[in-house]
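Lay summary. Proteins are chains of building blocks that fold into shapes, and those shapes determine what they do. In this project we predict the shape from the chain. Here is one chain we studied, written as its sequence of building blocks.
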Amino acid sequence: MKVALNVDLNLKKLSINDEKWFSKLTYHVGISDLSFPLLYAYRNFLNIECMRLDEKTALLVQDDAYGKRCYTILGDVNESIIRELTALGINEFSYVIAAQLPIFNSIKGMKWDIKYDIDFSDYVYDLDKFLILSKKARKEYNYYKNHHQPKLVEINNNNWEDSYKVVKLWSKFHQKTHVFGDEVKAYGEIKKLIGHPKVKGSILYDQGVPVSVKVVEERGEMLVNHFMKTSISARGLAKFFYHNFHWQFQGKIKWVNLGEDMGLSGLRQFKQRMHPVFLLHKYTVKLIS
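And here is the predicted shape, written in a compact code that computers can read:
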């Protein structure tokens, strides 16, 4: 391991040049918060930094919504690395997945307080089942299709500004908060990843006007949602857009990760109504003795 005890961590801001090695370390982890496109988009607003500890491991550091510094071990989580990081004064780790908990619990002489946060656990769906529309949903889908002039177009460098307009219009109809403001700015950063083979996005046009946008990332068998915004309210629009967007991945993707609900009741009801197959649990692990 390249980190020496009693030496400041040599953290640096996450950059576009980190994408290859960073994505390799998180490829098997489907958690949306640990996806490079999303972290890169928010790197300036959440003070996201990282450092490679060795070829199999890295340390990710970021601020949460309250300004608290959060530490996450990426890649090979083992006792040696945990001991070295705690010796450097890091006694709490965020975005720990369930598979890593036994490693923390097996370290002799260390006792951990483990907290599960349902508000920030990801909803995951089976793509094939996700594409099956109920009778009511099909009716909504057909209504929008028959009463509008929808056209789904892949996002590229030529039409990206149209997608940005949707996000900015969406923000005007929502509560003006620091988080929403950053979300608009973060979407502006995602432009640098448009064209990446694993980053996909589409714009829904209605009579030539962009009304919805969605950007995702392919991670093995999982499609991870990053941005989904709609600038208008229209009957059946969401059903039409969701269905047609995800249809293009049939046969290539098994799971759809729509991210967390952040404890928002409306968002939780919406995601639960779509019948998730499972949740990707996230834990905070804090050293207590």
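What the prediction tells us: The chain has a mean pLDDT of 91.
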